[in-house]
Amino acid sequence: MRLRRTKVLAGLLVLAVAxxxxxxxxxxxxxxxxxDCEVGGVDGDLALYNWSDYMDPELIExxxxxxxxxxxxxxxxxxxxxxxxxEAGGAQYDVIVxxxxxxxxxxxxxxxxxxxxxxxxxxxxxxxxxxxxxYDPDLEFSVPYQWGTTGLGVDLGVVGDAEASWALLFDxxxxxxxxxxxxILDDPREAMAAALFWLGxxxxxxxxDQLEEAADxxxxxxxxxxxxxxxxxxxxxxxxxxxxxxxxxxxFLDNFGDDENYAxxxxxxxxxxxxxxxxxLATSASPCTAHTFVDFILDAENGAQLTNxxxxxxxxxxxxxxxxxxxxxxxxxxxxxxxxDNLFFLEDTGDAEILFTDLFTxxxx
Length: 365
Known about the structure:
alpha/beta; D-Maltodextrin-Binding Protein, domain 2
């Protein structure tokens, strides 16, 4: 499922000229190519850049068979690494899967191709709640793919009926009793958000004093934290090396299966809700195939197959009829309204993105 992280946005302040040149050229070429596309058309193989374990291999095989193309899928551990590789010109991909705030950043930097929705008829399947997101209000450059939350996976045999709280990561009287058995996401926005929630602050705060305080909380947690990891947190938990892990809802739930020794908790202080999205790079060599792939994923039955495989919630309203009841009725996947009211999206914080990254890097070192 959705995994993450490395340090990169530090170069953001010096990107303007390079990205303008790269973005303008790629965008124009993509627009011209997309204008020649037909619904269901292909113009080459597809290069997909995605989070790990976030696409049912059978869907890839079905797409290849139906459209006579080959799909190559590579993986990144964080939005920041995705951004860094794309802006550096080292990412020769067609379709990517950025999260909400990163879509906003990539739009501003002219890295995404404006989608031609005449080529994506299945876009009508989207739930109305996802058709005007704050990061791309008119869905010009992205379509929602999956959504979920970031919380805590716990070993119930050790933590018992502990409260659903970020105290399990940051309180010396609680987490401090679990020395060497806690993991935190190796992701600046997610880790800092968790600390900000714990402190009672806005996860999108740009107040330097609040961010410094959050970084201090993370630094103090090193005394009991076994690892900062975005790709092994479930393995460490299930392997008994940790008993509390910070991570993504679907990744935990998929790996827990029917094992009642583990649970996924959404902390009461508030937690991150996120939407991952399909987007087409401005430099895509196969924009027709890319549009066709987006439309394929938005098919009702394909959307349901994706959610049944990932254990993340679907923004595809038409898929609901085909989603397994055990998934639809799981409040950890589809939280109730009271819980939803206490969930917050991460937003683009402008120049503060660099501060988030620098403070987190210092705190975990």
